[in-house]
Amino acid sequence: MANGVMIQYFEWYLPSDGNHWNRLRDDAAHLSSLGISGVWLPPCTKATSADDVGYGVYDLYDLGEFDAKGTVRTKYGDRSSLLAAVQALHACGLSVYADVVLNHKAGADRTEDITVLEVDRQNRDRVVSAPFQIYAWTEFDFPGRADKYSNFHWGWQHFTATDYDQKTGRSAVYRIVGENKNFSENVDQEYGNYDYLMFADIDYHHPDVVNDTIAWGKWFTDTLALDGMRLDAVKHINEDFIERFVDEMRAYVKRPFFTVAEYWKDNDGLLQKYLCDEEYCLTLFDVPLHYNLFEAGTRGREFDLRTVFDGTLVKSNPMNVVTFVDNHDSQRHQALESWIPAWFKPSAYSLILLRKDGYPCVFYGDYYGIGGNDPLPGMGSVLDRLLMIRQKYAYGEQIDVFDHPNVIAWQRMGDAEHPGSGLATVISTGDDGYKDLSFGPAAARSVWTDMTGNLADTVTLSENGAGRFPVKGGSVSVWIRAALIV
Length: 486
Prior knowledge:
By secondary structure, this protein is α/β, with parallel strands linked by helices. It has 3 domains: 5-102 and 207-393, Alpha-Beta Barrel (TIM Barrel), CATH 3.20.20; 105-202, Elongation Factor Tu (Ef-tu), domain 3; 398-484, Sandwich (Immunoglobulin-like), CATH 2.60.40. The chain contains 10 helices and 25 strands. Helix 1 runs parallel beside helix 2 (79-91) and helix 3 packs parallel to helix 4. The relative contact order is 0.10. The model has no long low-confidence stretch (mean pLDDT 95).
């Protein structure tokens, strides 16, 4: 699909009613009509409870099929409703990307008496105790599944660290002591070594772990007929394993297989290094762009809009990046909260949807609204309009006019494959403004209208195809050619 868009089809505070897969199934045709090309599913494997969003993963082989952790279904529904949703998406021509959580396991079936070293939370390379014994939740044998699909059972030897001692009730970062046991290399260096994130941290030096995880990935891909994956928390996982896992999945499916990784870091230099292997060809979310948009929305006229793409992946790696405005981690009351203010959201989405680079991602919470104790309305009607503009008009050469700290613009000149295409986007974070733009003699005397509805007046271009395109203060206007004056 030309000008593809993906949607993250969940937010943190969805109701735990087991009906989300049914809602997605019924929404498939609507998503396709919006120009959505790919759907990012929430984690669909069994987690610690029916209320778990899915990142407290318990059993990767349980898609809502077995009685475990007090539930058969996951938060989103059971296996049959998941498969029905995927089938509906595929029937509407949509790609399906699964959220894959490989960093840790949670909700173990039993404790084990193991030897550990406590490390400093702020510097995991610093050991702060002699070896001692704890009762750790590290034994997983999945009695509800009874070895269906896999007979692999997990124990302490398959993990590098954990964070809770059942014996004392004390929480800390406990590195497991054993042969070839240490934190993984090739992870983020925050806190000295950021291998450990939460729960029981998986050891990808262990060959049995590597083999079972790859076998699971193939089974999972087959079961859902996946078109790609979103890999969670890769900065905490040995990069060598991530590369092998992605290579194995792509070789197995023998077709294009989209893989995007979440490496949450506002540091384009570090992210560039993660993307440096051309054969590897992993895609990353543009976290630096998200933070630039957050700063622009928070600071308003004090932010220099000319710098909005500085230090971003979409500027340096336009072909290997998913651009986004907000997601489940950045929404309010989450650990990485950096929620972009409502007044700036339409402008922020224009900056990812109406430009030529990157694979933009729309957030469910922005489209349908946020639930929970602090609800927020969605902006579906605004996004409908921007998505329509993207599909019909956002084509051709892109010309940036980033010459003012509070008013920027860009043009898309249109192309022959999309008759009538072309647009002018003008954004202001300050007062009312304008940009003088030219579309050349071929656009002489054409009439342009603001598709956002923010401005009712039209703009008529001169004999040379030039005109003044206005914008209201603190808003965005997207101008498209409405008619020709004969």
